[in-house]
Structures are given as structure tokens and as C-alpha cells.
TrEMBL record:
Highest rank taxon of the organism: Eukaryota
PANTHER family from the UniProt entry: ANDROGEN-INDUCED PROTEIN 1-RELATED (PTHR10989), AT02829P-RELATED (PTHR10989:SF16)
Subcellular location: Endomembrane system
Matching Pfam families: Far-17a_AIG1 (PF04750)
Topological type in the membrane: Multi-pass membrane protein
Major subcellular location class: membrane
Lineage: Eukaryota, Metazoa, Ecdysozoa, Arthropoda, Hexapoda
Family affiliation: Belongs to the AIG1 family.
Transmembrane segments: 12-31, 61-81, 101-121, 141-159, 171-189, 209-227
Protein known as: Uncharacterized protein, isoform C
Catalytic activity entry: 9-(9Z-hexadecenoyloxy)-octadecanoate + H2O = (9Z)-hexadecenoate + 9-hydroxy-octadecanoate + H(+); 12-hexadecanoyloxy-octadecanoate + H2O = 12-hydroxyoctadecanoate + hexadecanoate + H(+); 12-octadecanoyloxy-octadecanoate + H2O = 12-hydroxyoctadecanoate + octadecanoate + H(+); 9-(9Z-octadecenoyloxy)-octadecanoate + H2O = 9-hydroxy-octadecanoate + (9Z)-octadecenoate + H(+)
Coiled coil residues, start to end: none
Naturally occurring in which organism (per UniProt): Drosophila ananassae
Keyword Transmembrane among record annotations: yes
Amino acid sequence: MTKVELYKSRVFVTIIHLCALGQFAYGLYYSSFEIQRSYKLKTSLNRRLVPESLPQKIKFLAYWSLIIQALYYIVSLVNDFVGTNELAPKKAPAVRRFKDWLMATLAFPVAINVGVTFWTLYAIDRELVFPKVLDPVFPSWLNHVLHTNIVVFIVLELFTSYRAYPKRSQGLAGLATFMGAYLVWIHVVKHYSGVWVYPVLEVLQLPQRILFFVAVIGFTLSLYLLGEFLNNTVWAKEVKLAKRKTN
């Protein structure tokens, strides 16, 4: 089956969206309720490392990413049934326009950022992002849902569903606003708790932290450009043919 045939198969695309939403929604549920019921967590000296309440969870970009992914696949399913997956519709419905904007501006760059950053730091020194003391209380499958599967499904989405990117300035502005707000948020958390959200920030001096934050923002914005490039490259021929047919 070719890429175009996959795209035209509403059933195939809908199944992908259902599988993605199912695991991300369950991941949100499990991390919100089941982990807190763990006996091992209740007796762990490192209980503070596992967030219990919603305010504690939203300190982490991975949790925000999981929310964004779940929202994206909800919107995608709505679009599958009441919107359109046409490559070049004459007038795209609102749900399709929102789906395209969400994928381009947040879902793709934030997911790739979380996955690449986490596993890079994990490979350097896992204690910087996921200390070994969490292994007994934080299941490995949930770790992969948060940091691996988000990348797998968003890349799969890139190759099975076309999206019209917004104006580059608007897309980058939306992503920069989100990432800037998150950096402000973790500084607010540090101010009131006295502890950095991520252990890696504890070992960096102020100049190093500034460089780290600049690098993270720059890397995330570059991922927006990467997504735009891949989208245009993968779907160039199909979009050109679709526009010819509609003219």
C-alpha cells in the first residue's frame, strides 16, 4: 500500500489515531491515579521524585507533551468523522484548521524535543533525568509512553496525514510563547519550592543554565522548521496533484 493509499484510507488513519489516543489517555490516567496507589511509593524515601497532584505533574514538560498529544488525537478523531483529510480542500473546516495548527506548532516539535532531550540526557547520566530510585515505582512502559511513543506516533502521523502549515512567523511565535511560558513556570516552581524540576539544573551554574535554556528554545524552534520541511518534502507530489485536480 502506497503512502497516498494509506492517506486515502480513512479506516487506517482512524485506527492510528485511536491507538495513539488510547495509550496516551491511559498514560494520563495511570500517572494521575494508579502510581499514587503503589505500596512501594508510599514507603519510598524518594517519594518526592514522583509527582502526586496535578500541580506537581504539570511541572514537567513530558506531562504537558502527553496532554498535547492526547488533545491532538482527540481533535484528529473528530476531524476523521466530521472534518476532512483531503490534501487540498477548497475550504477546510475549523476542526481541520485547528488540527493542522496544533500538529505543526505544538504536537510535533514538543514531542520530538521531549523524546530527544530525555534520551540524550539519559544516555549521558540517567540520574540527571530519571534516577534509578524511580524504577520500582515508575513502570518502564509509562516511561516509554511519555518519552518514546510520543515520538513514534507523531512521526507516523507525519507520514500518513498531510497538514497545511500556518505562516512560519505565526507558528514559531506560538511555539516560542509556549516554551517561554514553560521556562517561566519552572522558575516559579523553583522560587516557591527551592528545588529545580529537573536534577540536571541542580548541577549547572547560572551561566550554564542560561546556555542550556537558550539551547532548548533554539532546538525546539528548529524542530518546527524540521517538521515543516519534512511535511513539504513527504507530501510535495501529492499536494501538487491534488491542487491540479481542484483547479
